[in-house]
Model the fold of this input.
Amino acid sequence: MNRSSQTSSRPSQFRWVICGLLFFATTINYIDRQILALLKPILDEQFHWNDFEYGMVNSAFQGAYAISLFFFGWFIDRFGTKIGYATSIAAWSLAAIGHALVFSVTGFFAARIALGLGEGGNFPAAIKATAQWFPKKERALATTLFNSGANVGAIIAPALVPLIAIHLGWQWAFIIAGIAGLIWLLAWFPLYHSLAESPYVSETERTHILSDQTTDSESDKPLSWAEVLRIPQTWSFIICKFLTDPVWWFFLIWLPDFFKKNRGLDIKNSWHLLVTIYAIVTVLSIAGGWLTGYLASSGWSVTRARKTSLLIAASMVVPIIFATSVDNWTAVLLIGLAGAAHQAWSANLFSTVSDMFPKNAIASVTGIGGTAGSLGGIGFPMLSGWLLLHYPSSGYAILFGICGFAYLIAFGINHLLAPTYTPIAKAQ
Done:
């Protein structure tokens, strides 16, 4: 029996297996990111570092991550999704394990740089894989599903990492996270192939995936950074990432402090509020990714469906401006709604890259935009700290106000630079 007849008999859903692989990689990614923060009380006693040194260790990660995104975008377009993603995860998994081998602040500084340099391949590779394995009308949903791994990681890490550290030692939290990434590679290599070469996809599913895709192939020569940066649509993505990614980092970094300073709740009394927020984000964000596909299936153009979803998501963040003046559970709902809107926004924004750019430029554009988002993620915490220091009574109100309107501003700029999401020429 030939391969065609074999694959035709298989269920036409293998693309969702690929989505599952991307989900688990993203979950591991976000668990790795949170381990250091969760172990801080233990490591404070181990290394006797001050808050400034701890902050510098985190800044080292963010800076390395920004550089890595820029590099990995080119690397993945040059060498392909399979090799690019595997290289990234192998690098960050070994870097995670390397944390267990350091015994000084300088060693942790180096380990965080190594982790940041490895992690930059996750989103460029995942977005490129989504573009290769899903038709345009399903990409936002697929992106939302794999990106929900960030929320799942935010829920799992606080439950597991402290237990591992208490019973096995803090080093094992890093070691187990690194091993999880290496195990993931054992599934990635046999399961992931290009769509044309995959032995697991039926002809019916292949036809469905290619129904609205362009014909450029992964073997085409990638666009140079200079070519990519001359295209206005590239800047529509870069600016949006710069303006909105810092909001998500703000949630990850400052929410425990918000509940402590604004509500008088320490982590022992606010953890259930934080878990509820990320549970809301996980559930509602999926609806945001589904909406674009539903509208496209109803006869809307990809541009109209995508822009409608982006505008709805941007509007859903606005109510967060009231988070400082309502009761605890209403604040949880407003922040959870904003977090879910961010993830829906992010999924659709990522998908605009695959809507407009040829496959040999998707990872590069995604990487450059991710770098811009990381640079914003470095600057916004500094602004947050300055505002909270100088305006302790109103600092969070100001910050939530900035978060609330950032997406509407970004949507307006995106619309000006990319009025439609139709495919662009390979060079302009």
In short: The two ends are 47 Å apart (CA to CA). The chain is about 80% helix and 0% strand. Residues 232-263 form the longest helix (32 residues).
